[in-house]
Design a protein that fits this description.
This protein is mostly helical. It is built from 9 helices and no strands. Helix 2 packs across helix 3, helix 2 packs antiparallel against helix 8 and helix 5 packs across helix 7.
Length: 250
């Protein structure tokens, strides 16, 4: 067995760094694009967070379907049992909808800070789950404790200063719990059904998009008091919406 060429190792490292930078950039960009689109004091005021999530999922489903047209003939499509598809889709729908609702009703700072609690939540579930029982060293526990205390301080401060309100904190809490569960389910189902991440997305994104398109407008109306059918769509709003959808599938 020959030794690995240094150039090959360097290429893999560069590819990994590029993928990491692309992931970070897209994660930040989509937050600001969505905030510009949904900001109630902004120019567009597209206060339909759940419907926006539906559009994202349907865009992803369409892109995946289009990419499958270029697959080699005879290549088997990923299969996921309907029970697991529905279970994962419900959790994912709650996750992405609550995240977008949190971005709608909270300032960007609190939205981002609250997301830091996802990792401590996942660690807690893995620690107490009888089939996982993952253990963490003292340094990791100390870091998790610092994150939890820091988020608590920021949340109490924002509540006291009137930057946010109790409903915003509740929505942020739901987003943390559901997003943590989605991450755990994602890893579990990929291992159980031997799926890669894009295959899991291909199997579930059409279902998630359909669920949100049916339920999203009603949830949006209850939260914002506005019906999406009455929204006056402008060319600027369309541009930001297209940008948001493009980043979501990047």
């Amino acid at each position: 067995m020959g030794a690995q060429h240094p150039q090959d190792s360097g290429s893999k490292t560069a590819a990994g760094v590029f993928a990491w930078m692309l992931n970070v950039t897209s994660s930040v960009a989509i937050v600001f694009a969505n905030k510009v689109l949904m900001d109630q004091k902004g120019d567009y005021r597209f206060t339909f967070a759940c419907t926006l999530s539906a559009i994202h999922f349907l865009t992803a489903a369409a892109c995946i379907k289009g990419s499958q047209l270029f697959k080699p003939a005879g290549e088997a499509a990923p299969r996921l049992p309907w029970k697991d598809t529905l279970y994962f889709s419900v959790v994912a729908v709650v996750s992405i909808s609550s995240l977008n609702l949190s971005l709608l009703v909270n300032p960007v700072g609190l939205y981002q800070v609250a997301k830091l609690l996802i990792i401590p939540f996942v660690c807690a579930v893995e620690f107490f789950h009888p089939q996982i029982q993952r253990r963490f060293n003292s340094a990791t526990v100390a870091c998790i404790a610092v994150v939890v205390v820091g988020v608590a301080i920021v949340t109490v401060n924002d509540l006291g200063s009137g930057v946010t309100h109790l409903m915003g904190v509740i929505v942020a809490g739901v987003s943390v719990l559901s997003s943590g569960m989605q991450q755990i389910l994602c890893g579990t189902m990929q291992r159980q059904h031997k799926l890669q991440s894009h295959q899991l997305l291909a199997a579930t994104s059409p279902v998630q998009g359909a669920m949100l398109m049916l339920l999203g407008p009603w949830v949006d109306a209850a939260v914002s008091g506005n019906w999406i059918g009455n929204y006056q769509l402008t060319s600027g709003a369309v541009g930001v919406l297209v940008l948001s959808c493009s980043i979501s599938v990047a």
